Amino acid sequence: LAKGLYNSICDRFECACFLFNxxxxxxxxxxxxxxxxxxxxxxxxxxxxxxxxxEEGISMIKEKLSKKRALIILDDVDKIEQxxxxxxxxxxxxxxxxIVIATRDKYLLAAHExxxxxxxxxxxxxxxxxxxxxxxxxMTRPKANYEDLSNQAIHYAQ
Length: 158
Description:
This is Resistance protein. This protein has 158 residues and is of the alpha/beta class. It is built from eight helices and three strands.
């Protein structure tokens, strides 16, 4: 959903960046610094930007992005430190900038004082089964002899 939103509105902004797998990348050594580098490089369009520390990255984001109307999507956020390093305060960014945060933890959004929260609705069982089958079998229904296992998988994943 976040990628679809990004693709449909990114051309309305001066610059745009979709940061995939924030949780996974930030858990790696120097992960937050690498995410800040990617964010700055994509939004400024200046090639690779070097950041030596999270604090330096925060300073650079505040300084360099305060005059750019940007779209930023942060995918799979699971810690407040990630938000503080990548989207700390509203005054870091220009008026009109939009930051979309995809997370499974709505309390994280409240802790970061996010203004608007959209909670995804679960898919119905038939929708879930179809989505699962498209990804697992490249068809709308489970392969023969995989019906029970497919149904167990969608119920487990909700």
